[in-house]
Amino acid sequence: xxKHLSEDIRCVxxxxxxxxxxxxxxxxxxxxxxLIFYRISHLFWALxxxxxxxxxxxxxxxxxxxxxxxxxxxxxxxxxxxxxxVVIGETAEIGDDxxxxxxxxxxxxxxxxxxxxxxxxxxxxxxxxxKVLGPVTIEANARIGSNAVVISNVGESQTIVGVxxxxxxxxxxxxxxxxxxxxxxxxVSDSEDPISESLEQLTDRIQELEKETTFxxxxxxxx
Length: 223
Prior knowledge:
It is a single chain. The protein is α/β, with parallel strands linked by helices. It is elongated. It is 37% helix and 17% strand. The strands form three sheets. The chain has a six-stranded mixed sheet with strand order 3-6-9-12-14-15. A five-stranded parallel sheet has the order 1-4-7-10-13. A four-stranded parallel sheet has the order 2-5-8-11, with no helix packed on it. The chain folds into two domains: 2-191, UDP N-Acetylglucosamine Acyltransferase, domain 1 (3 Solenoid); 192-223.
């Protein structure tokens, strides 16, 4: 547990240029506070002391604004940036080197017991306000854009945007250990705005229709 917490703290410096020194990270980063409470409460959960685990988890929620169920499974070097409003359900599974921004929900869509929350593989970024719902699987290196709603599986290296979530692009990212490979808020550098693209397509179509109308009017005048 101590080793995992140490890695959780070190990865903050790799993914947040605002982090200056260890004391600042330990005292001013709610995502780190939430993970400290989670690592301890998850240990109690694994020992069968579930009430104690839930109480510790609830204290972590009060202090950090992040709600992580102690039954969730979280890998190494996990980073929650800003933190407020993040919710991670009981049967959620998160791999190594994942990053969540504020307002992210890894939620369930059923009241039935059993696996009902998402599974995140390695090297995944989920942008602010995004919702990943149900027992879906997000494959390695995927990016979920801010405010997207994902209710189906996401393939490796895919970028998902919109409501409901749709594929925006694919990009091989590999390991995120170097800073130039990290895309904050789940947005790749060469991605386009889908709304702007749609408006451009509509504008082009209107121009084509105007040309056709002008041509037809001219033919009628000539007749």
